[in-house]
Design brief:
It is a single chain. This protein has about 325 residues and is an alpha/beta fold. Helices cover about 40% and strands about 15% of the residues. It has helices at about 10-20, 40-50, 65-75, 90-95, 95-115, 150-170, 190-200, 220-230, 270-280, 305-310, 320-330, and strands at about 1-5, 25-30, 55-60, 80, 120-125, 175-180, 180-185, 205-210, 215, 220, 255-260, 265-270, 285-290. The chain has a seven-stranded parallel β-sheet, sandwiched between helices. A two-stranded parallel sheet has the order 7-10. A two-stranded parallel sheet has the order 8-13. Helix 1 links the parallel strand 1 (about 1-5) and strand 2. The chain is globular. It starts with a strand and ends with a helix.
Length: about 325
């Protein structure tokens, strides 16, 4: 199978690309290697992929329409796993135009590439942030998601709607995966697992927002990769039981699906900090702060639909996953 993975120097993208290469697929990767966070970490991830003879790398911005069209022309991938995006809820408040370019224009270019080259399946990253201010938990794909509380969330919801349009008009199979807080080795430096471990090991205080009254559905990277690959292997198909008089927001008469992908075990923030303290052997200095703009109090995934569709089962508990992350962090940064 020839598969295009976008964001292949990113945290999830690099891990997905590596899994595909290990099982024998041919992978074309694309990443702009922008400086949203440490580029040297992105290059280190990329070096691991470049060691595979079945990997080819392209470095450019997917918002470039002509470059993206040329990529699809030269690679003609059978399937596409689109994980490139401008991440970050808080960053979107101060840098909104970055999200219009990376999350909207780039996604449109990928949809067009898939359409014109008749890709078998487009699997793409959505986000748990689309649930916005919803308070009913666990979050279900059937819940309304029309009230985003950050521009990042709005662009991810827009991706889901754009994908449906292409599935409806051109019979392009598309599946969106709403990721819930992903962590593990090679993780993003702007995420709390990385930030907390870094600051606790260096003796610096950590910022604890909403005075610690948070819940997050932390999901280990290996579980995420397994779900992404399983989903990519099963192209979306129309739901023969879809009833337009009683619309289900996760299904369609078009070959379009939406799934949550999380651990289904929300963790209290203060317990999460205790686990990090145990793994690092250090006590955290806590800087208690109010809720941040665009943030939500709790995330909690109902993953039953993904379990039924592809047999997804998260396996790694927080204690084991955080121990693996701390071990990687100490080795990579020689701490």
């Amino acid at each position: 199978m020839k598969i295009l993975v976008t964001g292949s120097a990113g945290f999830i993208g690099a891990a997905v690309a590596e899994r595909l290469l290990e099982r024998g697929d041919e992978v074309a990767g694309v990443d702009s290697l922008n400086d949203y966070y440490d580029v040297s970490l992105k290059r280190a991830r990329l070096e691991r992929l470049l060691g595979h003879t079945s990997y080819r790398h392209h470095e450019f911005d997917l918002a470039d329409q002509n470059a993206t069209a040329s990529l699809f022309e030269s690679e003609n991938p059978q399937r596409v796993v689109h994980l490139a995006a401008q991440a970050g809820v808080r960053y979107s408040i101060d840098h909104p135009h970055a999200y219009g370019s990376a999350n909207l224009s780039a996604f449109l270019n990928v949809l067009e590439g898939c359409r014109h080259h008749r890709s078998e399946h487009l699997t793409y990253a959505s986000s748990s942030s689309v649930y916005g201010g919803n308070t009913k938990t666990p979050f279900s794909e059937r819940d309304a998601v029309d009230h985003p509380v950050s521009l990042y969330a709005a662009t991810k919801r827009a991706n889901e709607l754009m994908a449906h349009t292409y599935s409806h008009l051109y019979s392009l199979p598309t599946t969106g995966l709403r990721f819930f807080t992903v962590y593990g080795p090679w993780g993003r430096p702007d995420m709390s697992p990385f930030l907390f471990v870094k600051r606790i090991l260096s003796g610096e205080p950590i910022d604890v927002f909403n005075h610690g009254d948070h819940q997050r559905d932390f999901t280990y990277i290996d579980d995420i990769v397994e779900g992404v690959v399983r989903t990519s292997d099963r192209p979306a198909s129309p739901d023969p039981d879809y009833d337009p008089n009683r619309p289900d927001t996760s299904r369609s008469s078009a070959p379009w699906r939406i799934f949550n992908i999380g651990c289904e075990r929300p963790i209290q923030l203060m317990h999460y900090i205790e686990v990090i303290e145990e793994c690092t052997g250090r006590k955290a200095i806590k800087n208690m702060l109010p809720m941040q703009p665009g943030d939500v109090k709790a995330t909690y995934a109902d993953v039953s639909a993904l379990v039924e569709a592809v047999g997804y089962r998260p396996k790694i508990e927080l204690e084991e996953g955080m121990a693996r992350f701390v071990h990687w962090y100490r080795e990579f940064y020689r701490v």
